[in-house]
Amino acid sequence: MKRSFLARAVASAAVAATLALSACGGGGTSGGPGGGADGGGSFTDTPARGGTMHVLQNADFSYLDPARGFDGGVNNFYRLIYRTLTTAAPGNAEDPSTVVPDLATDLGTPSEDGLTWTFTLKEGIAFEDGTPITSEEVKFGVSRNWDPEIGIGSPYARQVIDAPEGYEGPYRDGPLPTIETPDERTIVFHLKEPFPEFGSVVAQPNFVPFPVDSGAGDAFINNPIASGPYRVESYEPGSSISLVRNEEWDPDTDDVREAYPDAWEFTIGLDKATIDERMLAGQGADVNMLGGAVQPATLARLQDPRYEGRTMVFPGVCTTYMGLNTTKEPLDDVRVRQAINLAVDKAAVQVASGGTQLAEVSTTILPATVNGHADYDLYPSEGHTGDVEAAQALMDEAGHSDGFSLTLDIRSDPKMQAQAEAIQQSLQRINIDVELNVIDVATYYETIGTPSQQHDAAITGWCPDWASSASTFLPPLFDGRNITEKGNGNLAQIDDQHINERIDEIRAMTDLEAANVEWGELDREIMELAPIVPLAVEATLTVPGENVTGLYANPGAASGGYDLVLVGLRDPERG
Length: 575
What we know:
Blueprint: H1 5-16, E1 22-23, E2 29-30, E3 52-57, H2 72-81, E4 86-88, E5 99-101, E6 109-110, E7 116-120, H3 135-143, H4 156-160, H5 170-173, E8 179-183, E9 186-190, H6 198-201, H7 219-222, E10 230-236, E11 240-245, E12 263-268, H8 272-281, E13 289-290, E14 312-314, E15 319-324, H9 334-343, H10 346-352, E16 359-361, H11 388-397, E17 404-411, H12 414-428, E18 432-439, H13 441-448, E19 457-462, H14 474-478, H15 497-507, H16 512-528, E20 532-538, E21 540-542, E22 548-549, E23 568-569
Parallel strand pairs: 3-12, 3-13, 17-18, 17-19
Antiparallel strand pairs: 1-2, 2-14, 4-5, 6-7, 7-9, 8-9, 10-11, 11-12, 14-21, 15-19, 15-20, 16-20, 22-23
Helix pairs in contact: 1-12, 9-11, 10-12, 15-16
């Protein structure tokens, strides 16, 4: 009889716990005394210039248009072809969790009342065709966020920047009057209210500049216009992306992107088991290859001495959770949601995620890496295996002693299916029958972010958009005023007056340390309403090609994976 994904994960998790992973410079960890590929160097050696970097992927990026895409994988990719006013510091920075200037000369200057922010553009910045990037192009790129069809990515521009009521972007309503461009290098943003972290907001991918009047409809889905060190030479959706150097990019204007390779080749649509096999074999051009996270079923093989020094682990920075749709019966009853929180066997979910080496059980919304995190557990159980008795008591009280059925949305991903099976088996103990609805990885986030297509629950994750505070975690997930028809981050669709008011109170605080304390308290208040089930913080274990170096963690990547702007080859002629 064929074993389930969960059963295979259980078998391999014990092996994962035996993997000895010693520290390596630069955020990741490597398994081996040499601290790098084939023991001959460090993963963080400075690459040579030239050659072609190969990347193997199971799924396509969500969107090449940065106004639409908003997940960690594509955000990391965006930095190869796009630039923004500010951006995340490179992974080798003294503090890689900070935000640094990019197209702008600094992190912006707020007015005394905090309602306007002014940025000055660097000189010598241009698009791939050589057209200069001016403040007008930045304004146009940002204003695309208000287009109801295009602006489904990062929510911060629409939430923070003032705009006329009913404004629907430049294609329908013309220029956005609340962004001023007094000259070619100066841009002024008018905010709805003071937002001390606006210098980090403008690092979001939907602050990418574009030529005025370009990019209407689906124009940038296949043919984006580059401002970064690479441009798209070809794109076959679901199959491949080829990047070549953007000759109009001036490295003297860019302190973040090293752009060591001459070209990048992304191969898309490969089975994850196939990617694992190629990572481990490392033959031919795959010595110059990056793959994704090793699957739990492959972990046992990494004990082989051949892989000593080749494995890397990046610590988790995101919370994996199950959102509970509070608009669906009986999930509109807080007692039912609390019962689900009590019943889920998080230890089994941890095993399904690769065991203790690759996942830590979550009991809070905010991960420990985000300022404002506070330790607590409102739904405790011995060994995090679930308190079935307490859960059943709440089900009885809510009038659901006999249980009910719910549909759980998941990605077509072996690890997520194993996590879902763990939840499925957990909830059977309180008579909840969970049906799994498997959605293609490339369209998953758009689907669950569209309330009309959303089912009862969904497994997903959330990562900090910048590390300075929980303002990038709790408001996007739980502010009911920001529930949208598309690109909705509030999967619970919870619209609670107390939560909304608390978000406003904390956002208005100018003392960020005091605000972080309040965010931690709000985390607990939200979990009293149980709109989600925090599951785990997952690390990433991977096996890069032995000719690849410049490998640093990227705090902005969904998996905490490689910072692509620093990656390159030891020997560009090899492979």
